[in-house]
Write a structure and sequence with these properties.
The structure is a single chain. 51% of the residues lie in helices and 8% in strands. The chain is of the alpha/beta class. α6 links the parallel β3 and β4. α5 runs parallel beside α6.
């Protein structure tokens, strides 16, 4: 008599009845399958989250690259600036183009070539404080711009930071006569520019 055999081969069960050991085996198998499915689902969920994060990261990176002008685009914009600039009368009219901060950055890069500039029109270009900061930094780095007389920045997206930076820039613009900052919501800052013909 072997008790171990009796546990797996119960001869007293009714005909057609599934033996207890087989029932236990099937139950364990079902639990194992459920466990594997749950593990697979969890792994798939982690993979999906990682995949989504990876896609979001690539999208953010792509947007970041798009938000910053590439070297090729910057070169094109600088070429555009040179083509539009009229050195004979010192006018550079880029008004109403809605070019954003990219045009301010390109203008900053081209600034050393604009020594004869007398009138600069940048109205309606959606330039923000960030773009204006790049242009002002270029002017400061280059030194005085003795010929610039008129600066039109109407209808952009400039804030108080740009006003303060422009006010500090005045010593480098000794011939500046008029400054148009209208349409930027900066009416309260007119006192920053005494002696200038200004529009707010």
């Amino acid at each position: 008599h072997f008790p171990a055999v009796d546990r797996f081969c119960d001869m007293s069960r009714a005909p057609g009845e599934v033996p207890g050991w087989l029932q236990s085996f099937r139950a364990a198998a079902r639990l194992s399958q459920q466990s594997r499915r749950m593990s697979s689902m969890s792994k798939h969920g982690r993979t999906s989250r990682i995949s989504r994060k990876s896609k979001e990261s690539r999208k953010t990176s792509r947007q970041s690259r798009q938000s910053k002008p590439s070297l090729a685009l910057l070169s094109q914009e600088q070429s555009f600036i040179r083509d539009v600039f009229r050195p004979d009368d010192g006018v550079l009219d880029l008004g109403g183009q809605h070019l954003g901060d990219a045009i301010a950055v390109a203008l900053a890069a081209a600034w050393p070539q604009l020594g004869r500039l007398q009138r600069l029109h940048l109205a309606g270009n959606d330039i923000t404080d960030e773009g204006m900061a790049a242009l002002i930094a270029a002017i400061e780095a280059h030194g005085p711009s003795p010929k610039l007389r008129r600066l039109n920045l109407r209808g952009n997206n400039l804030g108080p930071a740009s006003v303060e930076a422009l006010a500090s820039l005045l010593p480098l613009l000794p011939k500046l006569e008029s400054l148009d900052l209208g349409g930027n919501g900066l009416e309260n800052f007119a006192a920053q520019f005494p002696g200038l013909q200004t529009w707010f």
